[in-house]
Structure formats: C-alpha cells, structure tokens
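Appendix B, Record 12. Input sequence as logged:
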Amino acid sequence: MTYEGYTTFNVSLAQAVATITFDYPPVNIQGIPMLDDLNRLAEKLEKDRSVKVVVFQSAHPEIFVAHADTNFLKDMSTEAVSRDQVECLYLQDVLQRISMLPQATIAKVEGFARGGGHEFMLACDMRFAAKGKAKFMQMEVGMGILPCGGGASRMARQVGLGRALEIILSARDFDAEQAEAYGTINKALDADAIGPYVEELAIRIAQFPAESIEACKRTVYASVDLPIEDALKEEAYWLYQSMSKTPAQKRFQYADDNSAQNEMDNQRNWDQLVLDIQGVK
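Logged structural output:
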C-alpha cells in the first residue's frame, strides 16, 4: 500500500512504523486540506495491518500543528440548534477517526500545538514534547466558543475535571514540563533526546503482533468509557480476538516446554525476553 498525494504532510514507512511529517507552510494550519488528508490517511491505515505504529511530527521548526483555520470557523452558523438536531463537526469526526485507528499513535511535539493542534495531539494514544520548544493552549473561550475538536471532551478524561477546566478556561500557554505535570503528555524530553526516545519506543511496539496492539488499545479505551463490569467483558472479548489471530498459544507452549517461566534469569530479564519471543511464530 502506498501513501502518496497528500498536500499537508509526507509519509515514510520503515520497520512497521509510519512517520507522518506535517509540512504545510506557512504554519501547518489545521484547515480543510489537512483534515481531508488525515481522513484519507485514516482510511488507508484502517486496512493496513503491516503498519503497527504511527508517529506524527512536524517539519516546521516552531510549530507542530497550528490551530483550526478561522476560515471555516467563521462560516459556521450562528443559529443555536437543539440537541436532537446537532451533528458532529467534520473536525470532530476526523480526529475521532485518528483516535480509533488500530495502530498505536504517537505525537512527537517539538513546537506550538494550540487549539485544534492541541486537540489533534490529545486524539493520539501517546504524546511526547520537547522542552524549550513545545507550547500548548486551548484559546477558544477567549474567542467566544469552546474547544470543539474533542478538546473539551477528551481533556477531563486525560487530566481530571479541575485541571481540564483550568487549561480550557485560562486560555494561556503552558510548556512541556507543565504539560507533563498536568498529564496532557506522557513525558517532557530534552530537544536532543525526544527523537531517539520516540523512535526506540515506536520500533519496540512495532515488533509485537498488530492484533494484540489493537486489542490492548481497544480495551484501555473501553476502560475509560464503560462501567467496570462491562469493561472486564470487553477485556475478555479482545483477549479472544487476539488469541485467534496471533501466535500467543505457540509462545505459551514454547515457554512451558522450555520451563522459561521458572528460570530466575528469565524473571530478571523480561524486558528483553518479550522481544526475543517474537521469533516464535
């Protein structure tokens, strides 16, 4: 499967990792062209089991993804609608599609990610940011609206109610270290360390079966949305899905035949063993 013809980013493939590099001068604005590209990208990734991890980054030295394009926001209707008439926005639909990809998704943020750019980052599974370079903000309250690319809906799930309201209602910049403390990113890293860290993580994840990556992702997301009893059933459901499509049983048998689980040296070295056992197909 080829990933070509996008106008707002480039795609490179290596070791089951797709790296998406936003490159849409002058500022990587999040407009219809970018959303159309992301929608077409998602359509391909949903069918491509050879790609296990997707990393999003930027070619711009100061910007990850900028805010949503005011050109399509200013054309929105000013008429209030009832709840039974409301429909999701295109921005919401596209970012939700990115969130629900079967692959593990990682945002590598080395510049500004405000408004829609911040919401795009929140739609990814994991987020890492460069110290001294990354800046975040939800500015919508100051414009007279609210974060409407999933920001108001995802923020509290990520950081809790009080912190989410602080971020959204203050409409002020915060940096990578603050984002790590808030919980909007996984980790803040020095500018020269973020690339190697994300690359190592992506390649490690990409060595595992695509089906078990998806099963883990679906189950963790369900744990946020469902009552515990239903979440446990979802966990069991995805266990059977992964067991039916991966060499899990062969790997359990291999471990049993070699008494691997009873060896103290193995107990001390699971970090490496989990990679070594990928050779059992």
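The chain has two domains: 9-206, 210-279.
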